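User: My instructor asked us to take a sequence, write out its structure as tokens, and then describe one feature of it. I'm not sure where to start. Here is the sequence I was given:
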Amino acid sequence: MNAPTELAKVIASQPDATLGYKDFQLGSFGFRRDEYFAHIAWKTRDGRPLSHTMDIGSFLRALMRDVGWGFFYGGVNFDDVFGTVNHYSSVDMQAGAFNGTMKAAGVDLLENFPTEQIRATFEQILNDWTNACFDPFAAPQETGTPYGRKNGNNTPAITRARELASRCVGLKGDLNLRSDERGAPVNRGFADVPQDQPELHPEPGFENEVHAFNLFGFLSRSQVTWNPSFTSVVKHSYMCPTTEEHILPIMHSNDRVEWFFQMSDEIAWDCADKNTGKPLARVIMKAGDMAAMPAYCRHQGYSPKRSMLLVWENGSPKLVYEIQNGEAPEVPVSF
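Assistant: Let's start with the prediction itself. The structure tokens for your sequence are:
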């Protein structure tokens, strides 16, 4: 086992003399950016050189979620070719391993890395390739361009702490409510959302046990998109609402069932087999709709205007292994 200091070492070049960006290497994968694109190179299982190109904005938005979410539950597919799979103490990085055509052609590659090692490399790529004017967590209309030559950094934006309640938002000693004073004004898309809070009249002695807050008001002040946070936690039951605008920057491959409640507006979801990418369904969710994504699917959402989505996660660390062993179902209900 490598020591933590060894795992934190990142292989990077000197900045390019013209563009200003560094190249990075992790295992058999190489990463390079120019003014418009990210280029990922690897050698196939039989030793042939192969490469993949992504729009740099799409790449950075996906990389931001992978870093910010700690590689999330299951697979984070940047697109149909490249992505990661979380094993909770290590992470697979893959190119084409979950693309049926590339897999059949034998041009895919999957390598496993300790979480600390891949996190350190991804954090440095994100920091070096994100310019001062671009926020990969923001909606496209609320940020500058990701394109062009090296122009500073945006470290405050890419190192935002994810808002995680330990019991419930607004409860004494827990995550505070959002406010103008905390730098969280109401978003332009939610100007009509009431900001009043519910009245509470607990019996004496239960003041710290009974709690309620305006969830719509809380979400209306979110400054980021496609970034679920914990607003209430009961053992491994996590309520993770979020605000969505434009495109979910990744295709999320579930390793457990994930429940969605559309709280406002509309999101269209493309659902596919998580191993091959074969299309499974198109789901259009409108305000009041509920859906569940089974553990065998990947999904990507499209929100034409800023909307609110409540995501419910069973965060049990045992659940993924219970599903793999056939001890828990891949679907939310069997008819």
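For the description part of your assignment, you could build on this observation: The longest helix spans residues 115-129. Try explaining in your own words what that tells you about the chain.
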